[in-house]
Amino acid sequence: MSESLSSAIPPWPGTYALVLSAGVRSSVDIGKLGTLPLLPGFYLYIGSAFGFGGLKARLAHHGKMATRPHWHIDYLRPKTSLESIWYSCDAKKREHLWAEVASEMPGATVLLSRFGASDCSCVAHLFYRSTRMNNENSINESNESKRGLNRRDALIGLMIGGLFTTTTKRTIKKMEETSGARAQIPGG
Length: 188
Hints:
By secondary structure, the chain is α+β, with helices and mostly antiparallel strands. About 30% of the residues lie in helices and about 25% in strands. The chain is built from 7 helices and 7 strands, in the order H-E-E-E-E-H-H-E-H-E-H-H-H-E. Helix 4 packs across helix 6 (about 150-160). Residues about 135-155 and about 160-175 have low confidence and may be disordered.
């Protein structure tokens, strides 16, 4: 992660999403979890940072290659490119809601169950799509009300799910206005 990107991220607690891409078919051993089939396309990894250094420390860790992998994502990072980082500074853990909503996004696939979710009941915190998604078509009001989600949380989650699309200033502005979430684009 670039120095300017790292300095823009606050050291506060929060929830984040990494948008990654892979260009070639391969496989990645994910420690004791198993083998992840790596397919060309886009990956959305959702996590939280409530320890020392908050988002700044956790995202700086994810922005570089770990010499000794600690988290599942550490095994995947060397085989992917970091496209963008999205985060919400908040003392409330939102990663499980974001993961739930992302799992319901059209075309989102779990390639390895329990990835990033060994400490919770989520199916996974890593989702794959072969193509980018269009943000404008990702909000489904009926699903939101059916599950009784808070509108702000649902919008955050749905927009995170829509992150498989190219990040634009309009999308970032819309996301910031509706949820308080922030985006950072490596090298941008």
